[in-house]
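Minutes, methods subgroup
Present: GH (chair), OT, SY

1. OT presented the first of two proteins processed in the latest run. Sequence and structure tokens recorded below as shown on screen.
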Amino acid sequence: MSSDVILEEFEVLESIYADELIKLSEKEIRIDIRPDDVEDGEESLDLSLTVYYTDDYPDELPRLSLEPLEGEVDEEEISGLLDGAQAVGQENIGMAMTFTIVSHLREQLSTLIRTRSKRRQKEAHELERKALEEEEARTRGTPVTVQSFNEWKTRFDREAYLRKTRDEEDRLKAMSAKERDEYKKMAVRLTGRQLFERDKDLAASDASLLEDGTVSVDVSQYDRIATEDDDDDEDRLEFSDSD
């Protein structure tokens, strides 16, 4: 292809991209690529496309390169955009293809921005969902099993013992020396229940409390004597003044 054909395409491109195109040489141009439609609040992502035309253009693909102008684009995304641009160029071999390549790249930038936005929204929703699940689990509590109850009971008893010990120490500190001695003596005295548990025969030991020499009373003898006294009273003669 003669340089006249390339110059003719340059003139067409300059009329379309008056503010975006820079002519670097007789065979090389640079065009700033901006997405077609970007909604308010979406990130800005602009690229610079360099096109180098070979002597066999348009029967041969031009050499293409992309560089970021604004926004972040990783190497994998750049490679994907270039592969798509070259595929479009291959479909238009034999024809002026620069405008078609630029239009394709603008569409792909818009798609890339929307994909990123949806991914960020999905990640935000996922974080919110996890936060809600954690909050529900925290407020709902943990299901009680035999093992978890026994573990809780062990901790509870230990904490209760430590708390009682601290209270006991504080109470002793507030006492005088005499009060502490008396308190300790009372503390070691066994209760009635403790005594009973230590000596199972305590209930039967009351008989041993009788003092030596105590006289036992036969209730049946007392009843017999009382009956005889009553019989004697009946045998007595009664006199009245009328006799």
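2. SY then presented the second protein from the same run.
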Amino acid sequence: MTAKQDVKPTYEGRPYARPDEELVDQGLQFDIGTLLSRRGVLVAGAGAAALGLAACTGSGDDGSNSGTASSGELTEIPQETAGPYPGDGSNGPDVLAESGVVRSDIRSSFGSSTTTAEGVPMGIELTVYDMANDNARFEGAAVYLWHCDREGRYSMYSEGVEGENYLRGVQVADADGVVAFQSVFPACYSGRWPHLHFEVYPDADSISDSANAIATSQIALPQDVCETVYAEEGYEQSVENLSQVSLESDGIFSDDGGASQLATVTGDVAGGYAIALAVGVDTATEAAAGGMSGGGGDGGPGGTPPGSEG
């Protein structure tokens, strides 16, 4: 009779990094490895989901991705504050250290909570370009994206949602430099134009440390789309807030009215919206990334989300 051999657990053929713990507790690097091993499937699924929300971010007649700039029009994405609610470990909570953050659908919390953020559906597609490499599509770049919910609250920080981590997620750019997320349309809170935050990392292994970010910026949403969405139930507080701010007065976008950060948006309330933005990253430029706002940013003189101090 032969001795019984220990059988080590695996997932999709990959041995657990922490054999004595559950799949959801295998850590960020295990998640990244899983993502990269089946990236083609995940990216295709994320893109299809975004297209399902609004058939608008597919390829154009010339085969290029719609919503992105040609190399002749591309400019470097402005470096902006990450605000005081980044959740990247630079100011308290660190969602980037949690297993489960690598996902395309960021509407729900993961881990100890499964709460889903409500709101008008929104697909997000960013195309990342490596400007130091002749504007090549930045395959393999990792993008961490986050934004406030329909009530203007940031998960992990704002009162009532400190235990949530929804509307935060990481994706790795495919061969076309594209990352795609499924989310909900964010609120407009007092003092800030409606926006999303993101950080770009040179590769998947770098996202475990926020200091490795090579670009930190924000995405502005068009006024007409915001006005349409905010007429919907649940966004009532955003109507007045939007009327009191503009792209020209916003503490982040006022320098150029958000010219290079204003997303292309298509779709409607019934079917959901899809937003797209070209993100030019110059790795030859030293990143002035992250950090809390020094004025006019999230939580600073320029705006404070509901239920937050600052």
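Chair's summary of item 2: Confidence is low (pLDDT under 50) at residues 1-5, 37-71, 292-302.
Next meeting: continue with the remaining queue.
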